[in-house]
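User: I'll paste a sequence; please echo it back and then give the predicted structure.

Assistant: Echoing your sequence first, then the prediction.
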Amino acid sequence: MSDKKFRKIPIGRREFVKASGGAAGLGIVRQATGAGGGDERGASGSSATYVPLNFRTPGALYEPVQGTGVTGRGRGGRKSHVGFVIIHQSFSVLTADQIPFTSVSIGEEFAKRGYRALVADTEARAGSYHIHDILPDVGAGVQFFRDHPDVDTVVVVGYSRGASLMSFYQNVAENGASVAQSDDRLFPAPDDLDEQPAADGVLILDGVLGTGPGGGSQPEGLLEVDPQVVDNDPQSLDPSLNVYAPENGFAPDGAADYSDAFLEEVFDAQAARMNAMIEEAQTAVEAIDGGTGDFPDDDEFLAVSINTPVADLDSDLLAHTSGEWPLLSTDGSVSVQQVPYVGPTPDAHPEVTFDESLLTTVKRFLSTSSIRPTDDYRITEDSIEGLDYDSTNAEAPGNLEGVSAPLLILGFTGDRNYLVHCEIMMEHAGSSDKSLMYIEGAGHGFEPLDPQQYGDTAELIFDTVDEWAAERFV
């Protein structure tokens, strides 16, 4: 399968504005009716306009509507000179109904608070893109606001897996393409990687470490490698490493209580499998480059069963942060503490299936879906250790080391994966102006796990962003 066979989705302006939410279903983009109109969250006080950023990147520009209570500079008020750019790492605009937060339009949330927001999509599909190929899409969004006569400040927004994309983008934009072309990389970015305009700030919303480390909803990366698979062969399984077997500590309700000895074997097996797949892909690339491969450009690669969330299954893993951080509640209270995970145990996927595997190419696997584990790779109750962030561009912590722009990271306590991921990003971040806060009871889709218990977490999330942005950029 070639990583260049992107298919253009035939969708017109009206259909796009009606059906899409831009970046991977980031809320249905709705044609707002102006002040007082509409019955969706944020519909009053914003308007959406179709914006074609380039030949493959459609976008929707949200702007505050005049007369909605925000007064002052420019259309919509004094905050409207700040533009937020939201692009996810892979395309899923026409599957937005599968995303659990279609009741929240992220563009409208910014616009109703007086800002401009550009929610854009990319043609990249999971498993079929190099992360460096998406940088021009982000750059087009940043440049759009740079050229806008009423915008002088741009903030890039990395939601979920978009955290690695936006941190990678800003690192390259601030420091040049050479940071992505080191020989330490399993697949360095190409020599012709273009310069990109830097943003003035970076916002990360419930970010995942990256597609190289993995840990998101798609089958990808080291953290969800199925340890029982031998030699990347779906017919060759080691039952002693089956994390879904009751004799190994799994429970029928999806919870697990693994022994330390079993987890030690699991993490060693995950690391060994990842290193073996890396070696297999590198050997194939060497053959391609040497002219002895089946194709002159690339070749297909199947990473078998890499959607096994070991850390999700055992409540003792990634149960809380290591340090103490501000925990914000919708009742207005703020406590500084170790932040616990409060969400449910996720659904289990006990079978080794094609759907839980990653069909990609050897080059794309190396550039975007892998990371080199070190000998001390482990997942603990409050950390993920032993990841060589220098080995891939498709990760957030290492890239954030090179970012100097102001940074806000908001973690949501209703998703186990991202709780500790956000803390790790904070620990690596190089900016002198960096903040990490958590939203109590928020699920990964901004919605509360229990509205009666946690209130309107989406409102709190975007109000917090508003306070951060207004203090720095308005």
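The radius of gyration is 22 Å. The CA atoms of residues 401 and 430 lie 4 Å apart.
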